[in-house]
């Protein structure tokens, strides 16, 4: 009797497993349907790859819940990643492309679409709340095309399908194609410095045109800093403490405005060979140093001082070399002015070394 009961229980368990497997296969078939662009769970996404026909490609890889890398090299903008994931989760299909436009849209997608691959963490065993053996799996592949005539949707096509659809984002008056950019620089974090005062070991400021104004701020422990003139390595005794602390707090979040790596090489090399305006090197308490070298930017035609004299340099922006010279950028005075300070700025009236 006990033997028969054990066989019956084993049969029931096998039947349940078979049912779950069948439902899983059915679910997989549905997920691969020709219109299933919508992402169900953004938290499980591990990697997103995007590429176009112009040899642009980008891979966004999750390293931690709030840490992504661009092409395994650069920190990503969390805000941009979040917007893309939110878009993927919110996608809705409006309708299939009309038969009259079908062939033209398919041809357009073949030439100009961005290919999107989504990888997620899935589990080899995922039954009744029990999850075991996680691994990365390619879960979606589709193509994102241009906007519809109304500009309120865009054309998308699943891989291995011949039926394109009009897809839109509810509540968004526009089309989502620009959010699927395969261009690396649009995903990179533009931060140059992000250090709080306790994390700063020293800051070196070099001003080639006036070397007597160059200096170094050194952390002497317990948030006590000393100011040293680089011209003679003499310590400056009578400086304004509040001004120095405001200078150091300016490194909390400093970002460049735009990447200019694709600038004409001759023009860029000419700028980089010119005398720098100010070079700043920050070393943190772990010993890691980062340097930004700034260069004057020619001012726009017609820019004058209060007396009407033409100004040789742009009053709003500077060129800057960052990331060990790998990136050429443009920065705003509005953002960086608080750390572009010469030594006399810190001196009290009548101050002495």
Keywords:
single chain; 353 residues; alpha+beta; nine-stranded antiparallel beta sheet; 20 strands; elongated
Radius of gyration: 29 Å
Terminal CA distance reads: 100 Å
> Roughly how much helix do the residues carry, as a percent range?
10-25%
Number of helices in the DSSP assignment? 6
> Per the principal axes of the C-alpha atoms, what is the gross shape?
elongated
Largest sheet entry: 9 strands, antiparallel
Structural class: alpha+beta
Beta-strand portion reads 35-45%
Structure summary, number of beta strands: 20
Question: SSE string, helix = H, strand = E?
Answer: HEEEEHEHEEEEEEEEEHEEHEEEEH
Contiguous uncertain segments of 5+ residues: 20-32
The structural domain count equals: 2
The main sheet orders its strands as 4-3-2-1-6-7-8-9-5
**Mean pLDDT over all positions:** 89
